[in-house]
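SAMPLE LOG
Freezer: B-3
Tube label: C17
Construct: single chain, 297 aa
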Amino acid sequence: MAESESLFSQEDFATPARPGGRKGQPQDYGYPVNDRAALSSKALEVTHRLTAQYGQAQWSRKDPLSMLVDIILSHRTRDEQTGAAYARLKEHYVDWEALRDAPVKEVEATINGVTFPELKAPRLQALLKRITEERGSLNLDFLRDLSTAEAIAWLERLHGVGPKTIGCVLLFSCRKPVLPVDTHVHRVSIRLGLIGSRVTAEAAHNLLQALLPPDAQAIYNFHKGLLRHGQRVCVYDRPRCSKCVLTDQCNYYQTVVQPQSQPQINRPPEDFNSSTDDSSFSPSTGGPGAGSGVGPE
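STRUCTURE (predicted):
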């Protein structure tokens, strides 16, 4: 698969046109600079540093169908709540067929604790029924034997399964080179300047994928590194830049945080009496991509 190949559609996300009626420059909706080689080098350097910082993440042992169930539960839900709901499903139902055929209210009660259980319960069952109709049984292991493009195309046929879910299933359980972009990967990528400040989470999948080598391990390291960094350091509201190992690579730090911390010199005395108060500065309201707030798919 070529590095610049579009994974989820024929549209070239690398050079997107600015959406009609929206403000900003074209680069806000694509790459912030034209030098894609430099952006690729930055992405690899970021991956190297974050893997060194947080360690090599272990691959999941879940099969593709179990991963699909897990990811559906995880949408807009904390990891602890997702894990607890998934464990309750495994305890309550002997197999995924039993979950598929159970009363929907029973499933909803079993996964109570995740966000929107009243929506996720019927969605899970609808997906399981559709897979059974398509394949004759509940098993997605065949995805491992398909090409990456074929596996993506098959999952895209399932209603409500978008790029992030597809990426998680194919990368985590099939070890195919497909990048999932969650809220942390999206936010950190914008702040680093790998993608423009107005790039949506959906469009970010192909833009970021094109910066990475077509290698599942490299993509996995990038995803896990940015996810952990977004959870622990580059958080949504007030990123902990003093603890960050990427400040020399980060557009947000260099254009927003660092200037705020510099002493004000060569100003007329009256400027020091202005109403500006550094103590009220919130990174979530300024700089490229700050406070993007885009939740999981």
